[in-house]
Amino acid sequence: MSVAIKTEPGLFPIVNAAALRLALEIKVIEGENQSPRAEHLSIAAVRSSKNQLVTYPIVAHEYYRDRLLTFPAQLDLKFASRLQEVVNEEVMRLELFGESVFCFDLNGALIRTQRGVSSQTLWSEIFAVTTFSENVVRAAWELPLGTSEMIENEWLVGNFEAPASLDMTHPYLHLFAHQPKYRIQKLTSHRGFVALSKSSNLREEVIHAIDYLEGVINE
């Protein structure tokens, strides 16, 4: 038996790794990338057929050279609570089961509801107790869902996609010497994301890693 899970293009390795950890079979169906191409907020949600709903903390997104950057959203409690209420209401109104990502503009207006595992949820692979991809697999197999809380509060995740001609091993020598706290996770040989936490220059250092991995700079 296997179950079908929808993802953005190229995210099969993330969901497959979650399934392998649990020794469960899945079939991944790739859809299009629906992420807004501007600054926005998002809340990821997973609802099981048993009606268990798990929502992830609100995160913010912006772009650097068309590369998605994700970090914890610093929001007023009342504003954050209102966004959470919108998600809960939409899940029930639309009778959504499985995985969803709710996208809001910076003023709190709901601009898009995406289905499937997306780049906006990659942060959870490093900074959530239970990754979004694992909860998606659990829900698909009708298993109880895991907790979604963040394990750190100051972090930044940046996506990278390098030209196929680049040597992707050599940059490790520079980057890991430059910042031992870098966490680099590959989705393919030339595509993946960089995560960093507990640094006074999060944005500067993640951008440095993206530029170095993509060959924009070569010190």
Fold blueprint:
Blueprint: E1 3-7, H1 12-22, E2 26-30, E3 40-47, E4 53-55, E5 59-64, E6 67-72, H2 77-93, E7 98-104, E8 110-115, H3 124-127, H4 132-140, E9 155-161, H5 170-178, E10 183-186, E11 191-197, H6 202-213
Parallel strand pairs: 1-2
Antiparallel strand pairs: 3-4, 3-5, 3-7, 5-6, 6-9, 7-8, 9-11, 10-11
Helix pairs in contact: 1-4
Q: What keyword list fits this structure?
A:
single chain; 219 residues; alpha+beta; nine-stranded antiparallel sheet; two-stranded parallel ribbon; 6 helices; 28% helix; 29% strand
How would you describe the overall organization of this protein?
- By secondary structure, the protein is of the alpha+beta class.
- Helix content is 28%, strand content 29%.
- It is built from six helices and eleven strands.
- It has helices at residues 12-22, 77-93, 124-127, 132-140, 170-178, 202-213, and strands spanning 3-7, 26-30, 40-47, 53-55, 59-64, 67-72, 98-104, 110-115, 155-161, 183-186, 191-197.
- The strands form two sheets. Strands 3, 4, 5, 6, 7, 8, 9, 10 and 11 form a nine-stranded antiparallel beta sheet that branches. It has a two-stranded parallel ribbon with strand order 1-2.
- β1 (3-7), α1 (12-22) and β2 (26-30) form a beta-alpha-beta unit.
- The protein is globular and about 55 Å long.
- It starts with a strand and ends in a 6-residue tail after the last helix.
- The mean pLDDT is 95.
Could you describe the largest sheet, including whether it forms a barrel? 9 strands, antiparallel
List segments where confidence is low: pLDDT < 50 over at least 5 consecutive residues. Answer: none
Share of residues in strands: 25-35%
Q: What is the gyration radius calculated from CA atoms?
A: 17 Å
